[in-house]
Design goal:
The complex is a heterodimer.
Chain A (H helix, E strand, L loop, with lengths): L3 E4 L2 E4 L5 E7 L5 E8 L3 E10 L2 E4 L7 E6 L2 E6 L8 E8 L7 E3 L3 E5 L1
Parallel strand pairs in A: 2-11
Antiparallel strand pairs in A: 1-3, 3-8, 4-5, 4-9, 5-6, 7-8, 9-10, 9-11
Chain B lengths: L3 E3 L4 E4 L4 E7 L6 E7 L6 E5 L5 E3 L2 E6 L4 E6 L8 E8 L5 E3 L3 E6 L1
Parallel strand pairs in B: 2-11
Antiparallel strand pairs in B: 1-3, 3-8, 4-5, 4-9, 6-7, 7-8, 9-10, 9-11
The chains are: A mainly beta, B mainly beta.
């Protein structure tokens, strides 16, 4: 079984709709992250959480919100989706006690029409 | 200027060639360094960590140059299966991760 899972894997939605992307992990890591990836722009950090009570904005947080429901769960919401949020979204975890390597989920491909 | 910079390539090399990529970083407080490999539309996967003294894993060698603030990845005897995008990752003193935009490698027969 995968250590970091993301649902849904693919989603097509319309402009203005609210959408939630979910991430779960069984690695027992405190730190979780949400990234988006666009062609030519690499991975950009949206939000990160170092523990359940800690939420921080990343490089591109506008238009997004997150919720850390438990150590194992970190969800990303688009309150009112717009077409330029069409991208590949990755969740990741890391263990600060182990050189802080990032472990990624399989990604969610989101298309906003 | 982006904190972590990579030449996007593509680097187009024949099988068996040796190829090297660099990744420069601007945050002198960066403490952890990694190379990741990403295949098209897949998640990035750790290729290797980069240690201060340099490290090798089979055909792959990673180096860190703190004075000039860059890391490098050397691939010897390139295989067709090495074709991918290679991302560098640094984490600074606050452990906020920063990725480069990636370098595309195409190995052809």
């Amino acid at each position: 079984d995968a250590d970091v899972t993301q649902t849904p894997r693919n989603r097509i939605t319309k402009t203005g709709k609210r959408i939630m992307l979910e991430c779960s992990q069984t690695k027992g890591h405190d730190r979780m992250y949400w990234y988006r990836q666009d062609p030519g722009l690499g991975l950009r950090l949206i939000y990160y959480s170092f523990d359940v009570k800690d939420i921080n904005k990343g490089e591109i947080s506008d238009g997004y919100s997150v919720s850390r429901q438990a150590q194992a769960k970190f969800s990303l919401s688009l309150e009112s989706a717009i077409p330029n949020q069409t991208a590949l979204y990755f969740c990741a975890t890391s263990d600060p006690h182990s050189v802080n390597e990032q472990f990624f989920g399989p990604g969610t491909r989101l298309t906003v029409l | 200027r982006k904190e972590v910079e990579q030449d996007p390539g593509p680097f187009n090399v024949p099988e068996g060639a040796t190829v090297a990529f660099n990744c420069t970083y601007s945050n002198s407080a960066s403490q952890s360094f990694f190379w990741y490999r990403q295949d098209c539309r897949k998640e990035p996967k750790l290729l290797m960590s980069v240690y201060s003294s340099g490290n090798e894993d089979g055909r792959f060698t990673a180096q860190l140059n703190r004075a000039s603030q860059y890391i490098s990845l050397l691939i010897r005897d390139s295989k067709l299966s090495d074709s991918a995008t290679y991302l560098c990752l640094t984490s600074g003193g606050s452990y906020i991760p920063t990725f480069g935009r990636g370098t595309s490698l195409i190995v052809h027969p």
